[in-house]
Write a structure and sequence with these properties.
The protein is mostly helical. Among the domains are: 85 residues, DNA polymerase, domain 1 (Orthogonal Bundle); 123 residues, Intergrase catalytic core (hpI Integrase, Chain A, Orthogonal Bundle), CATH 1.10.443. 55% of the residues lie in helices and 4% in strands. It is built from 13 helices and three strands; from the N terminus they run αααααααβββαααααα. It has a three-stranded antiparallel sheet, with no helix packed on it. The radius of gyration is 25 Å and the shape is globular.
Amino acid sequence: MERQLQAFIAHLRNERQVSEHTQLAYRRDLDHVLAYCSKSGIDNWNALQIQHLRQFIARQHHQGQSSRSLARLLSAVRGFYRYLNREGVCNHDPANGLSAPKGERRLPKTLDTDRALQLLDGAVDDDFIARRDQAMLELFYSSGLRLSELTSLDTDQLDLPAGLVQVHGKGSKTRVLPVGRKAREALEHWLALRGISAPVDNAVFVSRQGRRLGPRAIQLRVQVAGQRELGQNLHPHMLRHSFASHMLESSQDLRAVQEMLGHADIATTQIYTHLDFQHLAAVYDSAHPRAKRSKGSDS
């Protein structure tokens, strides 16, 4: 069983060319399954059945493993068994039809409006790095881009006179988003300096060496801005969450926010309806004629 597991990891590395991080994650999860098999007297992968895996997942959940971790583990098992079936070692998938136990859905962290303005409204030095970072922050918050969408953004996807940006989201779906005035101004300042680096391609956001900024580099720049301006940890998805929350709070148009975020399922967008519940409750109490207390009433 160990030999076949090693062969699968080699397949991931050599044929599928997945990242080292992904290889390690697969190996770690499948090692847990292998250890369970050893303790349970299961001596080959074809003998691992759905009832065994269900028992293993239930035990891991009882011991405190998160739903997200268990979902990732099941994904690793499915990938492994696709490989084993292709190699003729097995003829089934014990993870077929299994799903991780549902955990509590945590509300995404956001900046309130004042904190978002504090982040973006400070003085910006007129230099390459400062202008680039400001443009990234403004675009994240203005248009709700995912990190991958901003990383892959090319100059021909921007139409600043029209105030629009075209992004390629999950599932190769394209959507066109508005770009606010402040973000347009920040992008114009940045694009005037971008050419200094002699960019090697059409990437909007590049390093001093002219290379497209990768996800990790962008995360680090956002983190630096968060510590400098707010004294807190900040990541790109927090800006996307803040965009969604503030848009929904102002417009109350769930469908429009869904389209701007590029969510396939409106249930994904509905999580933002819970973020400002206390604010909405306060507005209701003060505005609804059947909620208002009569003057002088103690009850």
